[in-house]
Amino acid sequence: MTYLGELRRNWRPLLAATIGMGSGMSLVGVITSTIAPSLVADVGWSKADFAMVGSLALIMSFVFPFIGRLTDLFGVRRTALIGQVVLPLVYLAYSLMDGRLGVYMVIFAVQSVICVTTTSTVYTRLPVQYVKNARGLALAIVASGPALAGIVIAPLLNDYVELHGWRAAYQAVAIFTAIAGLATFLLIPASSAPAKSGTAAPKRRAREDYPAIFRMPAFWILLGAMLLCNLPQTIILVQLKLLLLANGVTGEGAGIMLSTVSVGMLAGRFVTGVALDRFPPYFVSFVSLALPSLGLFIIASSFDAPAVLTAAVFCLGFAFGAEGDIVAFLVARHFGVEIYSSTLGLLTAAMSFSTAAGAALLSYTLARTGGYETFLVIVGCAVLAGAAMILLLGRAAPARVPVAEGLAPRAS
Predict the structure, then answer these.
(1) In a domain, 405, yes or no
(2) Which of 146, 166, 187, 404 is the most buried (most CB within 10 A)?
């Protein structure tokens, strides 16, 4: 089968995962960054208070391993359905809240616990399960969902907020996620559930799988790298528009730059995805993950020309997009498909913890300095160190058991 032919053969699970990623929790960063300035100004919260909300993402650190395990045991279709139902209700709840920070935090906590079933931990199992030779490109296609949605939604939502306010914007997002969630559920093949045909596969036991994961050096290398590389994610997920406004960018200009993030994410997905299939994956991973340090240092500097800031924002988006491909590809390479989501759930938990820790650090530095520069320099150095750790994976042996052929039925 040809490189692209494998993708054509499995179009249905790839389309389902792409729509699911483009309408699930992976889009929350674009939505929140776009709506946040209007929301914060209307209800009177301080920037430090709002930054602290991001630390609630720590909750997801404890949820992701369970979500990954559920996906390996029960399949993508059933696991994703939970978040597909709840996420529109969460956006509706945001639109109806009374403006108290505590209420917002409760809704955010519910979103962080339940709606993580619409993240890459769940959806990327579809390309890993169905595609082998073109896996990097397949992961890029699926992971491009949030970027494609962000390119369209960011400017439209920005204008919608300006015209109708943040409450109406949240209601519009709720309608969009409900429709997209239904389409995703209908497209996911029933065969995506594990061990549905032929002789039943032996039941996987956590007490056997997790010790095997923890014994592998590749897990600890990836864990350390993700802890360092995800410290600045709160900037992209929540604070980017506020950061750009603090650098003298106009509201309209910030909206355009938010679209640049999505363009960078899209470029990062496909450039990195194809490169992972064609070139040494550890070098590709290092270059892609180190790129945001350049963007962070530029934004922290005195170079605030629009073109320079746009380039810096593009670097952040590129690495944010590439990271999803890299982690999924390396997990499949080193751990195989049978425990893919269990392993990815653990690593995603670490990434979530790192994001929450970064939000807490940002809140602290904002309260102490009143600006973003200190935070940007600290996390820029951390990202560079984390990217360098990926190079150590070249010494760790990949999984000896390849993708089980029985796990890749034809999608029709």
Answers:
(1) no
(2) 146
Q: What is the pLDDT of residues 222-269, one digit of tens each?
A: 999 999 999 998 887 777 878 888 877 777 777 778 778 878 888 888
CA-to-CA distance for 359 and 55, rounded, in angstroms?
5
Q: Which residue is listed with tokens 């949820």? A: 63
HSE toward the beta carbon, residue 116, CA cutoff 13 A: 29
- Residue at 81: amino acid letter: L
DSSP letter (8 states) at residue 404: -
pTM: 0.75
Q: 329 and 272 in contact (C-beta within 8 Å)?
A: no
Nearest CA-CA partner of 156 in 12, 81, 293, 259: 259
Question: Is residue 406 assigned to a domain?
Answer: no
Rounded-to-integer distance, Cα 362 and Cα 372, Å:
8
Q: Is 130 helix (H, G, I), strand (E, B) or coil?
A: helix
Give residue for tokens 């994976």. 393
Contact 45, 99 (CB under 8 A): no
Pairwise CA distance, residues 34 & 51, whole Å: 15
What are the DSSP calls for 5-59, one per residue? HHHHHTHHHHHHHHHHHHHSGGGHHHHHHHHHHHHHHHHT--HHHHHHHGGGGHH
Can you give the pLDDT at residue 37? 87
- Does residue 179 sit within a domain? yes
Q: Residue 181's domain is classified under what CATH number?
A: 1.20.1250.20
Domain range enclosing 365? 3-193+206-398
* pLDDT tens track for 274-303: 999 889 899 999 999 999 999 899 988 878
Query: Domain total for the chain?
Result: 1
DSSP character for 199?
Answer: S
169 found inside a domain: yes
Structure tokens at 389: 């750790």
